[in-house]
């Protein structure tokens, strides 16, 4: 297994346009109308393709619902995977965690090793930055062999996410050193 490299980018269009990944993973709530945040930006760049799918009843955002969209060369990445999260009022940290797991399973099934994702629940701040990073790290299991994962989040949260991630890495390294010293 290779070590997954984790990076952080802001959700604004300038940063999304620079993503050199195989796919972008988005999440969408069933009652997210109109689309908001990064979903609205992506939909706009795709000439309202996501909104049209919703309007025509092909995608609703129900929990666990999945959709794959081609970007038609409007981005550097060729595909967008969308995962439905259900109703916002029903969403909680446990559902966020299982949604992260489902997104990773989608990437593994598609055999993608280099992708970007918006952490489920961050767009409505169900998870704070610490919970969000823990959700991602706890679901990066040993059998999921990704090369690079880019976490996209609100511009004001990127630095905090990175800080929590770096702190977790230092703690993990210290624990390994202590275990190694005891052996």
Enumerate the strands of the largest sheet in spatial order, edge to edge or round the barrel: 1-6-5-2-4-3
Helix fraction by DSSP (H/I, runs of at least 4): 40-55%
Count of distinct strands: 6
Please state roughly what percent of the residues sit in beta strands, choosing from under 5%, 5-15%, 15-25%, 25-35%, 35-45% or over 45%. 15-25%
**Class inferred from helices and paired strands:** alpha/beta
Radius of gyration: 17 Å
Tally the helices. 6
Write down the overall geometry: globular
H/E element sequence? EHEHHEEHEHEH
Poorly predicted parts: none
Distance separating the two termini: 24 Å
Largest sheet: 6 strands, mixed
Mean pLDDT: 89
Quick summary:
The chain is an alpha/beta fold and 183 residues long.
Could you list some keywords that capture this structure?
alpha/beta; six-stranded mixed β-sheet; 183 residues; single chain; 6 helices
Describe this structure in words.
By secondary structure, the protein is α/β, with parallel strands linked by helices. It has helices at residues 13-17, 37-45, 49-55, 93-109, 129-139, 158-182, and strands spanning 5-10, 23-28, 66-70, 79-84, 114-118, 148-153. The chain has a 6-stranded mixed β-sheet, with helices on one face. A hairpin with an 8-residue loop joins strand 3 (66-70) and strand 4 (79-84). Helix 4 packs across helix 5 and helix 5 packs across helix 6 (158-182). The mean pLDDT is 89.
């Amino acid at each position: 297994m290779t070590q997954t490299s984790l990076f952080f980018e802001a959700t604004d269009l300038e940063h999304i346009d620079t993503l050199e990944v195989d796919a972008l993973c988005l999440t969408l709530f069933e009652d997210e109308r109109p689309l908001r945040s990064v979903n609205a930006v992506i939909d706009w760049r795709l000439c309202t393709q996501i909104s049209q799918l919703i309007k025509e009843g092909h995608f609703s955002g129900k929990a666990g619902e999945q959709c794959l969209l081609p970007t038609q060369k409007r981005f550097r990445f060729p595909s967008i995977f969308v995962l439905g999260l259900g109703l916002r009022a029903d969403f909680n940290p446990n559902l966020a965690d299982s949604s992260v797991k489902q997104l990773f399973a989608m990437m593994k099934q598609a055999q993608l090793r280099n992708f970007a994702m918006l952490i489920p629940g961050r767009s409505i701040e169900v998870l704070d930055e610490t919970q969000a990073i823990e959700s991602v790290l706890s679901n990066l299991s040993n059998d999921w062999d990704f090369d690079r994962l880019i976490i996209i989040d609100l511009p004001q949260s990127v630095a905090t996410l990175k800080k929590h991630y770096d702190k977790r890495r230092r703690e993990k390294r210290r624990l390994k050193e202590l275990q190694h010293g005891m052996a």
